[in-house]
């Protein structure tokens, strides 16, 4: 599993590493590697204690363009003309 974390150097020269929820953990180490190691250990401890990471899908994403899918019929004279014009423009383009 991979998660995104933020590592920042503090004014005193140490480093802080933090993960966002659901991994709301923040640790401080003497070096960047130390901070990341402490963060990893803290998260692994939670997982070892029985915490689970799951994905929950809620409903369908909002895709308003779906309302327009299939609105043009291939046998419509206007659509045929539109296709012909597009093809002509593509044929005339220089690459």
Task: Describe the overall structure.
- With 95 residues, the protein is an alpha+beta fold.
- The chain has a domain at 5-48.
- It is 35% helix and 16% strand.
- The protein has 2 helices and 3 strands; from the N terminus they run E-E-E-H-H.
- It has helices spanning 32-48, 77-92, and strands spanning 5-9, 15-19, 25-29.
- The chain has a 3-stranded antiparallel β-sheet, covered by helices on one side.
- Strand 1 (5-9) and strand 2 (15-19) form a beta hairpin.
- The longest helix has 17 residues, at 32-48.
Strand pairing plus helix content: what structural class? alpha+beta
How is the biggest beta sheet arranged? 3 strands, antiparallel
Distance between the termini: 44 Å
The poorly predicted ranges are: none
Number of helices: 2
Query: Strand order within the widest sheet?
Result: 1-2-3
Mean pLDDT: 83
The string of secondary-structure elements, in order, is EEEHH
Strand content: 15-25%
Bin the helical content. 25-40%
Coarse morphology: elongated
Tell me the radius of gyration: 27 Å
Number of strands: 3
């Amino acid at each position: 599993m991979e998660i995104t974390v933020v590592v920042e150097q503090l004014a005193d020269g140490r480093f802080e590493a933090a993960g966002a929820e659901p991994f709301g953990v923040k640790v401080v180490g003497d070096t960047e590697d130390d901070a990341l190691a402490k963060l990893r250990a803290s998260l692994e401890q939670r997982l070892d204690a029985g915490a689970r990471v799951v994905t929950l899908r809620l409903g369908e994403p909002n895709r308003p363009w779906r309302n327009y899918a299939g609105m043009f019929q291939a046998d419509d004279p206007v659509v045929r003309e539109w296709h012909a014009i597009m093809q002509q423009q593509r044929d005339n383009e220089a690459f």
